[in-house]
Design goal:
This protein is mainly beta. It has one domain (9-231). The protein is 12% helix and 46% strand. The protein has helices at 9-28, 224-231, and strands at residues 39-44, 50-53, 66-73, 76-85, 93-104, 110-121, 128-138, 145-153, 163-164, 168-171, 177-187, 193-203, 208-218. Strands 1, 2, 6, 8, 9, 10 and 12 form a seven-stranded antiparallel sheet that branches. A six-stranded antiparallel sheet has the order 3-4-5-13-7-11, with helices on one face. The protein is globular.
Amino acid sequence: MTRLVGLTEGEKKNMRTRTLLTSAATLALVAMPASAALTLELTPLAGSPLTVVDGSGLDGETNPGVVSYSGALGAIDISVTVGVSNSPGGTSADLTITSLLIENTSSLDAGVTIRLSDTGFNSPAGTTLGSTAGGTFSGLNATSSVNFTSYADASNALFGLGTATAPLAYSFTTPPSQSFSGSVDTGFAGSLYSLTSVTVVGLSANGQVNFSGLTSVVPEPATLGAVAALSVAGLRRRR
């Protein structure tokens, strides 16, 4: 067992959270069902959207139910982005964005909006929509930010915005490095539905963020914390 020596209580908490979520990421990538609708969309602050559909030529991941992209979007360098869906669901319905490493390679502020969506979820017929997020800011200028919102749509529309959680919003205030994490939930009812997550990232000049987020529908509010710990992916990957 790793001993957390010389760390503050907040740093210990973030490290334990990352350990749990990294283990969950390995489980999430195993034996995912095929998901023809799973779609990742990346839109830079100034520029056109880049759309990556599961199994398409832009998808860097061969496993079904997983979509991946690495590349540059203007001043934004996206090293690894992985979206995972377990549609049609199970004990929980999960849509996860993980291993997201974004860097602003310019001397000016830059940003990107990342949307991930999948349809065809029918298990569970949920009563709770949960949103869990975390990561680490890096850089010398404390102007970076991340905003993560989860959606469930009872009309089963791709990128449907029927029911939304409150946004999880984080700002970089203590350079050169700052970790963050949190969760929120809201009521939702649907027997066939889509899930969508929207991540809005703003980065200062030469700023960087590592990020993961989970959108999840569960049958009971009390189970949300356990589902998040077992389902969302690892939060931090250093170069």
